[in-house]
Amino acid sequence: MRMVEALLFASRDMxxxxxxxxxxxxxxxxxxxxxxxxxAYSTRGVNLVEIGGKWGFRxxxxxxxxxxxxxxxxxxxxxxxxxxxAIIAYHQPVTRAEIEEIRGVxxxxxxxxxxxETEWIRMRGRRRxxxxxxxxxxxxxxxxxxxxTSVSDxxxxxxxxxxxxxxxxVPAGFSVPVPDDSAExxxxxxxxxxxxxxxMMAEGSETTDDRDS
Length: 213
What we know:
The chain is an alpha+beta fold. 40% of the residues lie in helices and 14% in strands.
């Protein structure tokens, strides 16, 4: 257990089970060791948490206020950006055209750019449809920021109604999709070439969004 503890403390990034196992003696029961560490740190100032299938130490949620600092926010997410982020989280993989269809209004290139800059969304692949539009999905940074283990922890219909984010009298047949952020491409997606992805990220999402129109 001490070896896993040391690895997690020393790592700048969160570690997956395979990454941890590669540094330990063969046949080490990684899930059991992780469970023991979680219990050991459950009442301490830092907790061992899982985000996107990876593990790392984070400040206990009830003590996070101690580390908060007042700072001027250079940019606040607009309502359009928040709506777009929510659609991507629940409907991923999703294209810009599909986002616009759900929102009922056009989505500017700048909105996608802002979300890419936050690193809360990423370009997943290209849809196998005319124009080969880019598909978008959420990232581990999104999960970490919103303190989610996985996107399946996003609130469902009843929870959204309970918080007042949805009208309690929703239309008959209305449903909230079950989100899935699996990194594996779907049957209808093609991978984005690494060189192409680098060029698109360097230029912003303008090129990708033009293809979505």
